Amino acid sequence: MDVVERCEREQQVTEMMSLALDGLLDEVGRQRLQQHLDTCPACRAEWQAMQAVSTLFERSALVGPPLGFAVRVERRLESKQKKRRRTFGGVAVLTSSLSLAGVTVAAVCLVVLGIVAWQWLGDLQSVQVGMEAASQVASGMGLVGKGASLFLGDLLLRYGAPLLFALGAGVAVLVGLWTWLFVRRPKSPQNGYVG
After folding, report:
1. Which residue range forms the structural domain that includes residue 37?
2. Which of 35, 57, 97, 113 has a CA that sits 20 to 30 A from residue 67's CA?
3. pTM over 0.85
4. Are residues 166 and 143 in the same domain?
């Protein structure tokens, strides 16, 4: 058996052969390819092998996907999408519940602290003078209004900065969490099967 020498223009000729098999080689290219094949036994052997493979593919029947394949794929996609939506909904409900619980706990703490401060500060002389002025302003609001205004005023004077910082930090955490949830929310599928 003879050893066939490799062609110096193998890459260029192989590209021309591929184009010829696909019917994309122009007339000048086909003539150059034929001239080269007439003089190069290595490329001629490759051309014959490529033609044999192309003929084999042309004669073979194309096999499509099994019956119901698209339906099964679509059901799996829908199932995954439902799981993501449930998870996202659960996280959204959890964070909103925690937000509501935090607000409720803060309100209860403020009321309890107001009552404690009212009881504790009620005997001081300076507070009584301040209460008389505040009672004139809050006379229409009743006892609860007086207590709340005194408590909040005193609370803000003493602990205003830390309370504002804590409130700001809590709001920042909630805004960050809700932004993250909004960005990570499940998208609707765009695969052409879902209507």
Report:
1. 10-59
2. 57
3. no
4. yes
Residues 126-162: pLDDT tens digits? 555 555 655 554 554 455 555 666 777 776 677 767 7
Per the domain annotation, does 90 fall within a domain? yes
Q: Domain for residue 107, yes or no?
A: yes
**Is 193 part of any domain?**
no
pLDDT tens, position by position, 54-75: 888 888 887 788 888 888 989 9
Q: How many domains does the chain have?
A: 2
Do the domain assignments include residue 5?
A: no
How far apart (Å, rounded) are the C-alpha atoms in residues 160 and 153? Answer: 9
Which residues are CB-neighbours of 45 under 8 A, at least 6 positions away?
A: 4
> What string of H, E and C letters represents the secondary structure of the chain?
CCCCCCCCCHHHHHHHHHHHHCCCCCHHHHHHHHHHHHHCHHHHHHHHHHHHHHHHHHHCCCCCCCCCHHHHHHHHHHHHHHHHHHHHHHHHHHHHHHHHHHHHHHHHHHHHHHHHHHHHHCCCHHHHHHHHHHHHHCHHHHHHHHHHHHHHHHHHHHHHHHHHHHHHHHHHHHHHHHHHHHHCCCCCCCCCCCC
Residues 102 and 170 occupy one common structural domain: yes
**What's the rounded Cα separation, in Å, for the pair 82 and 105?**
34
Residue holding tokens 């003879």? 2
